[in-house]
Amino acid sequence: MTVVSSGEILRAALYLRVSTARQAAQDVSIPDQHRQGEAWCATHGYELVETFVDAGVSATSDRRPEFQRLIEAASKRPAPFDIILVHSFSRFSRDHFELEFHIRKLARNGVKLISITQEVGDDPMQVMMRRVMTLFDEYQSRENGKHTLRAMKENARQGFWNGSLPPIGYRIVEAERRSAKVKKALAIDPMHADTVRLIYRLALSGDGTTGPMGVKAIVEYLNYRRICTRDGGRWGIGQTHKILTRTTYVGRHQFNMHGKGKTRKSDDEVITVAVPPLC
């Protein structure tokens, strides 16, 4: 184990990230990144003291749970590790400005960011090379995002489901197979469909003793009778309001409604997909 002049062992924190299941199955999977990190530490004389993992999270933003925990730990004085080790700079961030911001912030606390596959030094030429690489990573990420959205929009136009978690009251089923690709669609989930129908009935005509009920009254009605949400929790005003205003429940699911920051997209970018109506 390499020891610095003060007698302290050099310490490393390992940050691992994948953004998609497809990526996780390829050579940048979490286990593979971990193996490469351990091997690098053993070769270079570092003790691996902590590992941070963000699985299925994009690096276009630093709003990642484990990433934030990593930065918080690295900001402590004294820092609990000397370097942060990543498979490549794109695992740490795909935003050039955010990457440079965090590199400088870490450096002020004596922590260095090191890439296993993109070794660069600290001289001006090497720093410029790193910035060029990260700018290209950011450009590539944005281009990939455009291609992915284009494919998802076409998938929606054909009536298929994009995404993982369906709205409450629906489940995902296999619609058809195209070679190795499975096309998915929404089907009514009998386990939770009646809860959604009840919410609409309460909003339209009440419970038989009252007139039409507002969102707050519906929430109180459901929680008082221990009618739980899909994950077994209590109902809230926001989620109940979302059900009552979502066109999916009347058979018209709208895909690509919002961009980054939840901004509403123009109507010509929104695609309406026919789904089984619940109400």
Automatic annotation (TrEMBL):
Origin: domain of life: Bacteria
Active site, per annotation: 19 (o-(5'-phospho-dna)-serine intermediate)
Keyword hit for DNA-binding: yes
InterPro entries cross-referenced by the UniProt entry: DNA_bind_recomb_sf, DNA_bind_recombinase_dom, Recombinase_CS, Resolv_N, Resolvase-like_N_sf, SSR_resolvase
Keywords from the UniProt entry: DNA integration, DNA recombination, DNA-binding
Pfam families on file: Recombinase (PF07508), Resolvase (PF00239)
Keyword DNA-binding: yes
Domain Recombinase: 167-279
CDD domains noted in UniProt: Ser_Recombinase
Official protein name in the record: DNA invertase Pin-like site-specific DNA recombinase
